[in-house]
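The passage that follows is intended for readers who have already worked through the single-chain material. We present the inputs for a multi-component assembly, then the predicted structure in tokenized form, and finally a short commentary. You are encouraged to pause after the input and sketch how you expect the pieces to fit together before reading on.
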Amino acid sequence: MAKLRARDDVSAEEEQVLRNLISETRDVAAKSTLIRAGQRITISTLLLEGLMCRYKDLNDGQRQISELHVAGDFVDLHSFTLKRLDHNIMALTACKIAVVPHERLQLLSHDHPHLTRLYWFTTNMDAAVHREWELSLGRRSAIARIAHLLSETHVRLGLVGLTNGLEFRLPLTQVDLAECVGLTPVHVNRTLKLLREDRVADMQRGRVRIFDLERLHAIAEFNPAYLYLEKEPR
Amino acid sequence: MAKLRARDDVSAEEEQVLRNLISETRDVAAKSTLIRAGQRITISTLLLEGLMCRYKDLNDGQRQISELHVAGDFVDLHSFTLKRLDHNIMALTACKIAVVPHERLQLLSHDHPHLTRLYWFTTNMDAAVHREWELSLGRRSAIARIAHLLSETHVRLGLVGLTNGLEFRLPLTQVDLAECVGLTPVHVNRTLKLLREDRVADMQRGRVRIFDLERLHAIAEFNPAYLYLEKEPR
DNA sequence: CGGTTAGTTGAGCTGGATCAAGCGTAGTGG
DNA sequence: CCACTACGCTTGATCCAGCTCAACTAACCG
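Having made your guess, compare it with the prediction:
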């Protein structure tokens, strides 16, 4: 909700409408796959607590995570229009989620064009993240990819109050991280070591500490414009 | 239009509404950048003829194309909700486009929830393509990336009647292709040679010929589900 | 305190990058 | 009609970022 308000004005009445979309909340176990590609879905999932991801895989088991989701993210709002997803959704940690039935979104899209556009906007932001990751995967070096991921999560977690200055929890294993940035776990390990030794940033046991934000952003060529942090006149 | 009808029912009246969105048509020169990242936009662009792409670049000039667009694609419908794009849009060939002012989309989103959902759906499909490309860039080998790109464009061009069986025009240079698949032009050249020598597919002077579709798809691990070709009950 | 999962490090390898030269062909203008 | 140029494609030689394989260590957990 805070996430939406950061980008556009939401009236008190609208806020109530959004709250009423939720039919129930649920707990999800760590490392469990919540939604599988191809299955027909009639609800969407709002992430309240924990870390989730979208991923696709190849026949040999190689996996590519296409986006990370943090508290406040609508993990699969796009399933409302797509009906089936082209990717899996997995909880990386234990999570708390809110369930939003598609019928309620259907009603929303009928009666609340402004909120519909706002939700449309959030799915377009996901696409913007995908594009930035395509740039990372296609063109950035290993160290830049990891620096970029840390920069992005730093901003996104900061938006929902989950950072403490330059420190934050990011409970990813090095294997998970490797699946985000298209590298092997071994190389991720060596690259993290580089960042640590250069006193740029450190990631240990699910905790990130940034020592030099400016240098981190420079290594990543991080430009947060794709995260659409500012409110636009509409 | 045919593209939409392939995925959902559009009434004759709705079709008229969509036609009226267009304010004008225009020609765009090959190799010209139509929209630059960050600029505020008040129109969206429907591609009528030609080939366009979305791309982002790094400071050293390295470029990553994040999606190709063919006739019938709404190239930057997402700018309606985003207001500024996070990427550039370039015409790869001479193109014909239709201009849709955002004010008209605003009215549409107010009066036509069904069509709004349909347009929302198309931007979600773009995101699905981005995710599949992330998988390619992160995990597929060079030959699989190229085989995948050929498989995808074969289907997408086929949808709008721009293929002739296993042959189609795809006026990309090897440099363009390299920027799609995150490789160097030299390596793209060698990989195309492999595909040609293995009698899988051939790409020369902007013309693709597939010799063995099954093998092409197998190399790519191509699964067209992410292109949402079937109409879903809604 | 034993087992299991995550992280670390070394040695050697390889897919794709880099650098560089040459080729084919479509314009272009004299 | 033919040089000249420019652009895209091709090929060879060499290099290196990141991969693979394998062994070891640290932390956590019941």
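Commentary: Residues 141-142, 183-184, 186-187, 190-191 of chain B lie near DNA strand C (CB under 10 Å from a C1'). Residues 113-139 of chain B form the longest helix (27 residues). How closely did your sketch match?
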